[in-house]
Please model this.
Amino acid sequence: MIFGLLDALRTIIVRYTHKIVKSIFCAFLVLALANLTLADDTSFRGVKVLDVSGKETTASLTFNDNQKAILVRPVKGNSLSAPYGEIDKCSYQYTRKHRIKTGFIVAAMGAVPVGLVLMFTTSKVHWLEVDYHEQNARKNFVLRMDKRSYPQILEAIKAHTGIEPEVEGNVDKRWK
Model:
């Protein structure tokens, strides 16, 4: 009787331990393969690209080392591609603007003290301009970067293209 219980317990332990080890191994294998296939690309979401009329469109920014190009894929519109070898310059700057419109809306909704405080605060907008040439034609695109991802984007430019982004204006170099 005792030997039967011990044998059943051993079978349960081996079976479930084998299942757990098998599951962990499969998960590890999937992650390892994903890293191998995605190692060539560095992507950023939450950027906005400006079109010809100056309208912002949400896009994704990808540094593709297989194609050796920066790819910008807007949600609406045509994709942009700037090969690493044809990039002339990348420049970064930020602008500040007062939140007067937002503060006025909040104050009008009944939160007057909060609205007044918002009117006197400023927000920063981070911009990246990439100048490149295609045959003999000079081209560029302008991206509005997310405040949390702009340092990583600037580092990715340096790492993938070998071009140091120029810092324009009165900008502190926190991202370096």
User: Anything to note?
Assistant: The mean pLDDT is 77. The CA atoms of residues 86 and 132 lie 5 Å apart. The chain has two domains: 1-39, 41-167. The radius of gyration is 26 Å.
